[in-house]
Design brief:
104 residues; mainly alpha; DNA polymerase, domain 1; globular; disordered C terminus
Length: 104
């Protein structure tokens, strides 16, 4: 697979650069979520190694701190990053757990 050696940190930064046309506040939020949450926990992993356990651990780390809004933003951003990787052929499947933030 062509992207198998690309790390999550490398791909996240590539994805972030593709969002330069977004409003400053939107881009800055993406940058913060990537640098503060995603890269510290997943950055050293190859993008092809990321699985649902990694994603759940990342989201749960924010939820454990009482940061539900941040956890939702991390999840949404990470989903966009991984979806772009899937479309580029860097990963084969994007497993989704949309029920992660169901309420009620």
């Amino acid at each position: 697979m062509p992207g198998s050696k690309i790390t999550m940190a490398e791909w996240s930064n590539t994805w972030l650069q593709s969002k330069m046309s977004k409003a400053y506040n939107t881009w800055h939020r993406y940058e913060s979520l990537i640098n503060v949450h995603i890269i510290p926990m997943l950055g050293n992993l190859r993008i092809s190694e990321i699985n649902t356990d990694h994603i759940e651990n990342l989201i749960n780390s924010a939820l454990d701190k009482g940061q539900e809004c941040t956890a939702r933003k991390i999840y949404t951003t990470l989903r966009q990053i991984l979806e772009r990787a899937r479309k580029r052929g860097l990963i084969l499947v994007l497993q989704r757990k949309d029920h992660m933030f169901e309420t009620g």
